[in-house]
Every structure is written in structure tokens, then in C-alpha cells.
């Protein structure tokens, strides 16, 4: 797996880890709505697929998503 794929897995694990925490889940859902909807207009992709697609087709937004996740301490480097 490459760096993008590993990061996508980190994001999935963060969502699973924080799912029961309503505050953090809301932050994640808002970030996913903001960024992953760029590549998944119909909401049919899973988080992994959408994250990888975002990284490849919209690298600036992907970088913004990662920064936001790190700023909220939802994923680490």
C-alpha cells in the first residue's frame, strides 16, 4: 500500500474509533460532506474510495482535508 492508501485507512479507523463520540463524529461527518462529496456526488462511495479519489483528482482539497483532520486531532502524522 502507498501513502495515500495508508492515510485513507487511518481516516476510516478514525471514523470507527470516534463513531460513538457525537462531537467528533459530527466533525468527521462535516469534513466528509465538505471534501469527499467533491468526488462522491451521490454518496455511493465508501470513505476509503472517496479519499483515494479525492487525493488523485483534487490534491489541494485532499491536503486541506488532512490538515483539518490533524488540526482536530482525529488522525496523526
Mind explaining what this structure looks like?
It is globular and about 30 Å long. It is built from four helices and no strands. By secondary structure, it is mostly helical. Helix 2 packs antiparallel against helix 4. The model has no long low-confidence stretch (mean pLDDT 95). It starts with a helix and ends in a 6-residue tail after the last helix.
Give me a quick take on this structure.
This protein is an all-alpha fold and 77 residues long. The protein has helices spanning 3-18, 22-35, 47-57, 59-71.
| Stretches with pLDDT under 50, minimum 5 residues | none
Q: Mind describing the biggest β-sheet?
A: none
| Average predicted local confidence, pLDDT | 95
What fraction, in percent, of the residue positions are helical?
over 70%
Supply the number of helical segments.
4
Strand content: under 5%
H and E string: HHHH
Q: What is the C-alpha radius of gyration, as a whole number of Å?
A: 11 Å
Taking the alpha carbons of the first and last residues, their distance comes to: 16 Å
Provide the structure class: mainly alpha
E-strand count: 0
Query: What is the 3D form?
Result: globular
Amino acid at each position: 500500500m502507498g501513502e495515500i492508501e495508508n492515510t485513507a485507512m487511518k481516516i476510516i479507523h478514525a471514523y470507527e474509533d470516534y463513531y460513538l463520540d457525537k462531537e467528533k463524529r459530527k466533525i468527521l461527518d462535516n469534513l466528509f460532506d465538505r471534501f469527499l462529496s467533491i468526488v462522491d456526488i451521490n454518496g455511493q462511495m465508501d470513505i476509503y474510495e472517496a479519499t483515494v479519489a479525492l487525493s488523485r483528482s483534487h490534491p489541494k482539497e485532499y491536503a486541506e482535508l488532512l490538515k483539518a483532520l490533524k488540526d482536530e486531532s482525529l488522525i496523526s502524522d
